[in-house]
Specification:
The chain has helices at 10-19, 32-41, 54-59, 75-86, 100-108, 121-133, 167-170, 208-218, 236-247, 259-268, 282-287, 303-315, 331-336, 345-357, 391-394, 437-443; strands spanning 2-6, 24-29, 45-48, 67-70, 92-97, 117-120, 138-144, 149-155, 176-183, 186-188, 201-207, 229-232, 253-256, 273-276, 295-298, 321-324, 341-343, 364-368, 373-379, 389-390, 402-409, 412-414, 421-422, 427-433. It has 16 helices and 24 strands. A six-stranded parallel sheet has the order 3-2-1-4-5-6, sandwiched between helices. Strands 14-13-12-15-16-17 form a six-stranded parallel sheet, sandwiched between helices. With 444 residues, the chain is an alpha/beta fold. Strand 13 (253-256), helix 10 and strand 14 form a beta-alpha-beta unit. It is globular, with a radius of gyration of 23 Å. Helix 1 runs parallel beside helix 14 (345-357). The chain folds into four domains: 2-115, NAD(P)-binding Rossmann-like Domain (Rossmann fold), CATH 3.40.50; 152-216, Regulator of K+ conductance, C-terminal domain (Alpha-Beta Plaits, 2-Layer Sandwich), CATH 3.30.70; 229-346, NAD(P)-binding Rossmann-like Domain (Rossmann fold, 3-Layer(aba) Sandwich), CATH 3.40.50.720; 348-443, Alpha-Beta Plaits (2-Layer Sandwich), CATH 3.30.70.1450.
Length: 444
């Protein structure tokens, strides 16, 4: 399939790198330096120009293109690009937007703006924050097979009960699979005798109940359940995060310094307590008992300010902090200095678009550790190499870094064991190294 990607920022580059091995990819980018860099670093045609202009799209071959992805940092440019592309033929268009109101309008009128599929960065980020809040200590959370299966990633602290245990000793759960360990830059596929070390990040896949019980057992914290949430910053992401928490029955608090913005949010979100103040005012934070919050979410307009307020929250005794970051490379730095989770809207957006582009192969995709590994949900067809085979036999035909974490069969969870036979129609949730993805899908 021929794919045009407009905008070669972090989102566009992530999508291009994922698609270039299996698709004919063309990238349109305005910035001359980025164009020059991409020309020598990626196996794709790179066109310098404005994606909203018909002549640029034609230079990129829009008439013979099946899919166009508009992924610049400007909502209006992305929407106009899709509309322009639609004038040339039956190309399927995807637009990345930040503002949720554009998504609401698009959903209310199918095909509005000439966009076939729209992704809201702010909403995706808010939903990711909410998922993480539901499990103590989780760095990443996702669900599969309609919510029957949950995947989660945790960092093992020195005082965690499973630190220095083997996987066999730690595996006390009937419907849980230890899928992987990340140790510094190493990806480890765990076996029974694999030792779990402090600092490791462990990925588990299993039933919602088992993953929740695992989280409660291994995380040493005074707040096992998040009920009191403080959001710092009335940005669109901060607003959407408060709205998502409200929708799930929470009554969050939000701190916003700008009076007009604070009033607007208070009028729109009746179950959110809005405080008009500077979140770097430690006296205010202590006066309002922010130190008693189960979670503080930093959603200000800069990475530096989000880091500062997260560290202040830690200083006054907040148990868990989440920071929104625009620069993906900062994620490890944030977490190294004490921020529990750093979430990138750009990564969330790229992941959602990549999920969509793989819909013909996979039911769902979740990316881990900044795209070092993936968890996939795949429906097994009758002609699949896995159909009718026991896992112990079938796994030998797959790359070494593959773990079958769970199976859904007719809406019921099947715990994968060596003798479990994989049947046509099964939904298999598996873990794999991203670099082996093409090999894995070809084998299945």
């Amino acid at each position: 399939m021929r794919v045009i990607i407009v905008g070669a920022g972090e989102v566009g580059r992530s999508i291009a790198k994922d698609l270039v091995e299996t698709h004919d990819v063309v990238i349109i980018e305005r910035d001359e330096e980025i164009v020059e860099d991409l020309t020598y670093s990626i196996d794709a045609l790179v066109v310098q120009g404005d994606g909203t202009k018909l002549e640029t799209l034609r230079e990129a071959g829009i008439e013979r293109t099946e899919l166009l992805i508009a992924s610049t940092d400007n909502d209006e440019i992305n929407i106009v690009t899709c509309g322009t592309a639609k004038t040339t033929g039956d190309v399927f268009t995807i637009a990345r937007v930040k503002r949720h109101n554009l998504l609401t309008t698009w959903k209310g009128s199918k095909g509005a703006y000439g966009v076939d599929f729209m992704v809201s960065s702010d909403l995706l980020t808010a939903e990711a924050i909410f998922r993480i809040s539901g499990l103590p200590g989780a760095h990443d959370v996702n669900t599969f097979t309609g919510g029957l299966v949950r995947m989660a990633e945790f960092e093992v602290s020195a005082d965690s009960p499973i630190a220095d245990q083997t996987v066999r000793e730690a595996d006390r759960y009937d419907s849980l699979t230890f899928a992987a360990l990340f140790r510094d830059d190493e990806l480890i596929i765990p076996r029974g005798e694999t030792a779990i070390q402090p600092g490791d990040r462990v990925v588990v896949i299993g039933s919602t109940e088992s993953v929740t019980q695992f989280a409660n057992d291994i995380v040493i914290t005074k707040h096992r359940e998040v009920t009191d949430v403080v959001i710092i910053g009335g940005s669109e992401i901060g607003f959407q995060t408060a709205r998502v928490f409200e929708e799930h029955g929470y009554r969050p608090h939000l701190i916003e310094q700008d009076r007009e913005r604070a009033r607007e949010i208070a009028e729109t979100l009746p179950n959110t307590s809005v405080w008009e103040s500077d979140a770097t005012d430690v006296d205010f934070l202590e006066q309002e008992h922010v130190d008693d919050a189960d979670m503080v979410i930093a959603a200000l307009d800069s990475d530096e300010r989000n880091l500062l307020v997260s560290m202040l929250a830690r200083k006054i005794g907040v148990e868990r902090t989440v920071a929104v970051i625009e620069t993906v490379e900062y994620a490890e730095l944030f977490e190294a200095v004490g921020v529990d989770v750093a979430i990138s809207p750009r990564e969330e957006t790229a992941e959602e678009i990549i999920r969509f582009t793989r819909a013909d192969q996979m039911e769902k995709v979740a990316m881990l550790e900044h795209d070092r590994a993936e968890v996939l949900e795949i429906e097994i067809g009758r002609d699949s190499a896995l159909a009718g085979r026991e896992i112990a036999d079938a796994i030998g035909d797959l790359p070494e870094c593959v773990v079958i974490g769970a199976i859904s069969r007719a809406g019921e969870l099947v715990i994968p064991r060596g003798k479990t036979e994989i049947q046509p129609g099964d939904h298999v949730v598996l873990f794999t190294d991203t670099h082996l993805l093409d090999e894995v899908t070809a084998a299945i």
